Predict the 3D structure of the following.
Amino acid sequence: MTGSFNHMVRSLSLTTSDKRATITAIRGADFHHRTGLEDTALLDAYLDADEDVSGRLSFAELESFQRRTMQHIKFADNAIALRPDQFLAAGAGDCDDYTFYTASLLRFWG
Ligand SMILES: [Ca+2]
């Protein structure tokens, strides 16, 4: 017998053996409800931050997320604060954009 089991989220009428799908359904729905954002690339970036797929974000995972962000997104001054999805799509931004992107990550993970 394998160690797989089903995850059930009654409020979303979801039953799956895929833990990431369960996390996506729960966190994605809550994040969309709170922010209005429903961008697939953004949700994937935030889901990938949970490197051990524990369903929680550790400080080490947050640090790793920040390191990857600094490696993949270029610094560029701009006059406005970009929404996290805009920042990710642009691949560039300044301090307030990094801040909103990270604050949004923390909102995603509760
Ligand atoms: Ca984790």
Observations:
- The first helix runs from residue 19 to 35.
- The chain has one domain: 7-108.
